[in-house]
Design a protein that fits this description.
Chain lengths: 353, 99
């Protein structure tokens, strides 16, 4: 900028802030793309030993899902922590945990990690994958309501319409025709799936509140590692004992050290890399573009997962056939995403406080 | 010694909340040098990142922008009324040790 050109301070401030908000939108989309990829790698790993075995009971298969989630979170947190250590922020962990916002991150982890995931896993058994996934897709809508109430975020009617489209689209993409099985605990299952969606939303809102004051990258490393430890050390044995499967979950962990289980372990570590990147982008998007937009952009993973599933199917790693309803859902998500991000100038004032 | 410090982002917010005037990045680099100067994270880009983050959630605001001698744009920051409501989260015991 030459000294001969008149300098407009207000214009410079606006451009600076717009640039920051747009990076938040890119992070939000990045979280959706990486979660779409994570889902496919994770699903492939779940088809392998020690997550599946002909000797497993139905409950053991449920525990396998929890073990996989715990391992994923632990390794994903490790990847993010590695990044923060490489950027010379190792000392920030202890410092952050000594503050109230740091303790809030530990608290919100329990909502989004073990609590929500347990409810979701149990709901899968009670209502099947169709309804459980459809209810889970509600979490950006719940998050948007909470963000307005708790964080005083400003959302215009178009953004609300966009979030609504993303939720509907995600439910359509996730939809699989009901199998006709009878579910005696159907309403309890629906309730638990709804509670799980609330847990994911509360996680995002508390984390955003805490990250007003602390580093999002440190926060997400703490959140993921804490979630992984909590799930593997406490949730896995407790769920196993209550479900009558005993300590089968911990035995699965031992299976990763055998030659038969090594590949599944490596795939989980790879999925954790993309998962860690997803959460990394997601928490940054919450902080830079607002929690409501961040959650809506994260749910676009349903859209990206269609593309990744098709790609992996072509490479012969994954069995997938695209349905017309999934295409409709993908288009609806795309429309919703455009509505959410249509006017970047809204990012100049995220909140009413 | 290191464990007694606040997280850097928190300390930047703490610093801005205690300074009456507007603050620039160079002020933070100068005044927090004694506390964080030995750490590789204590550099202009990281401080700018934390300041942008605090502005994004309305804890602090940009009051004006100026051109420095190199022709680069530099922002001046101050705490907002909303930010003042968050000062309560700064741990008093850690602040006391810091002084």
């Amino acid at each position: 900028m030459s000294t001969g050109v008149k300098f407009d301070a207000q214009q410079a401030i606006m451009e600076h802030r717009l640039s920051y908000g747009k990076k938040g939108i890119i992070c939000g989309l990045g979280s959706g793309i990486t979660w779409g990829l994570q889902g496919i790698i994770f699903a492939i790993a779940l088809t392998m030993f020690p997550f599946v075995s002909s000797t497993y009971s139905a409950m053991a298969l449920v525990i396998a899902g929890i073990v996989a989630a715990g391992m994923h979170d632990l390794f994903a947190g490790g990847w993010v922590a590695l990044y923060t250590v490489c950027t010379a922020r190792r000392a920030e962990f202890i410092r952050t945990l000594k503050t109230k916002p740091g303790k809030m991150i530990l608290l919100c982890t329990l909502f989004g990690g073990p609590f929500a995931m347990s409810c979701y896993t149990v709901s899968l058994n009670y209502v099947g994958v169709t309804y459980a996934l459809a209810m889970q897709a509600l979490f950006p809508a719940i998050g948007a309501v909470l963000s307005v109430v708790v964080l005083k975020e400003k959302l215009v009617p178009r953004t609300w319409a966009g979030i609504f489209c993303v939720v509907i689209g995600a439910a359509l993409v996730s939809y699989t025709p009901p199998t006709g099985d009878a579910y005696p605990n159907f309403y309890l299952g629906i309730f638990l799936a709804f509670i799980a969606a609330c847990g994911f939303a509360v996680d995002g809102i508390i984390a955003t509140y805490a990250m007003d004051m602390i580093d999002p990258e440190i926060s997400i490393a703490i959140r993921l590692m804490w979630s992984g430890i909590f799930i593997l050390v406490l949730l896995v044995p407790v769920a196993g004992i209550i479900g009558g499967a005993g300590l089968v979950g911990w035995k699965m962990l031992a299976g990763f050290f055998s030659s038969a289980g090594a590949l599944a372990g490596l795939l989980i570590i790879a999925a954790a890399f993309t998962g860690g990147l997803c959460w990394f982008c997601n928490y940054k998007a919450f902080n830079m573009a607002g929690a409501a937009r961040g959650m809506a952009l994260n749910v676009t993973y349903c859209l990206w997962s269609v593309g990744f599933a098709w790609l992996f199917q072509k490479m012969g790693f994954y069995s997938y056939s695209i349905t017309s309803i999934a295409i409709v859902g993908a288009v609806v998500i795309l429309v919703g995403t455009i509505l959410v991000v249509a006017n970047p100038k809204e990012l100049l004032q995220l909140r009413n406080n | 010694m290191m464990a007694d410090l606040l997280p850097l982002k928190f300390r930047i917010f703490d610093y801005i909340s205690k300074v009456k005037d507007e603050v620039m990045i160079d002020d933070i680099l100068r005044d927090l040098q004694n506390e964080y100067g030995t750490e590789r994270q204590f550099k202009k880009s990281m401080i700018a990142y934390h300041l942008d983050s605090l502005v994004g959630v309305n804890m602090i605001q940009i009051t004006t922008a100026v051109l420095n001698t190199e022709g680069e744009i530099e922002m001046k920051y101050k705490i907002t009324d909303f930010g003042l409501t968050k000062v309560k989260y700064i741990p008093i015991n850690m602040a006391a040790k810091r002084k």
